[in-house]
Design goal:
With 297 residues, this protein is of the alpha/beta class. It has a single domain, classed as 3-Layer(aba) Sandwich (Rossmann fold), CATH 3.40.50. Helix content is 44%, strand content 16%. The strands form three sheets. The protein has a six-stranded mixed beta sheet, sandwiched between helices. The chain is globular, with a radius of gyration of 19 Å.
């Protein structure tokens, strides 16, 4: 049974995130035990614990990361901070430079190679040391990093860092797997494989060291890649319902969305095949984004 403080905090969270009432049962059945598992890890660690949440677009990573941070505070009294891999994107100018120097597809943020890994590495390290530091923020509305003055300040060390990201902890593919384009985008806009080889090289290099900082990995496993299109379309539909005027230009039509998703198809499929063996906890999702099973390593 939940205590009254946590009960009220959950009600507020569900209302704030505009979640269905059924989310409470999901939180109690699956995510309270997850928070307790994190507590067990904290008890064994003598430093800041880094919890990673990985999963495809639309799988609920951001919501779970926010909830887990809340549970760790309300239920367990831990100091925690919630980070997104998205906040470490390279600046717009730097990605434009990469698009000219390496490949045009690198102008689109998202894939490995479009994050400032040294900044991510130093931020995670800094959250485990004594002192005050700024947490990067990225403004997707202008497709650029927010000004330093807008970065929140955190007094470290914290007990737990919750880090979420769609490609978090995905490893590189075998070189032979890169030879054949996986979709129309790769076939027409990366026919020579320059972009996908560059992305894979990032995973083999700087990202491997960065991802090694994750102590405890949670994977939200979609039923299959085809589900990603449907989940992202739902997000676009929700966006379309709440914006108007100039902001409506942000909404992608089905053709735009399909091309957009194809940037992430290769690694999403690779993650679905490989992350279950790497993760400490795997939540198997159904087509409605609910949880149908959980496994632990």
């Amino acid at each position: 049974m939940l205590n009254s403080v946590l009960d009220a905090a959950l009600d507020e969270f569900i209302a704030r995130e505009a979640l269905p009432a059924s989310y409470r049962a999901t939180a109690e059945e699956w995510f309270l035990p997850l928070a307790e598992s994190v507590l067990a890890q904290v008890a064994q660690s003598r430093r800041t614990l880094i919890v990673g949440i990985s999963g495809c677009q639309g799988s609920g990573k951001s919501t779970l990361a926010s909830l887990l941070t809340l549970l760790l505070k309300q239920l367990l009294g831990l100091r925690s901070v919630n980070l997104s891999l998205d906040d470490f994107y390279l600046t717009h100018a730097r990605r434009q430079e990469l698009s000219r120097q390496v490949h045009p597809l690198l102008a689109t943020r998202g894939v490995p190679g479009t994050h400032e890994v040294p900044l991510a590495f130093s931020t995670l390290k800094g959250l485990g040391e004594h002192g005050e530091l700024s947490i990067p923020r990225f403004n997707k509305g202008v497709d650029d990093r927010a000004p330093l003055a807008e970065w929140p300040r955190i007094l470290a060390p914290v007990d737990v860092v919750v880090l979420e990201g769609w490609c978090l902890c995905i490893g590189p593919e075998e070189e032979a797997a890169l030879a054949t384009p996986i979709n129309e985008l790769e076939a027409t806009e990366d026919a020579q494989g320059i972009w996908r080889h560059y992305v894979n090289a990032q995973l083999r290099g700087a990202y491997a060291e960065f991802y090694a900082l994750v102590d405890f990995l949670v994977f939200l496993k979609a039923p299959d890649f085809a589900q990603v299109y449907e989940w992202r379309q739902r997000q676009e539909d929700k966006l379309a319902a709440r914006v108007s005027g100039m902001e409506a230009r942000r909404v992608m039509n089905p053709a735009q969305l399909r091309r957009f998703i194809q940037h992430y198809e290769r690694l999403t499929r690779h993650g679905l095949a490989t992350l279950p063996a790497r993760a400490d906890v795997v939540f198997e999702l159904d087509e409605g984004q609910g949880i149908r099973a959980c496994s632990k390593s």
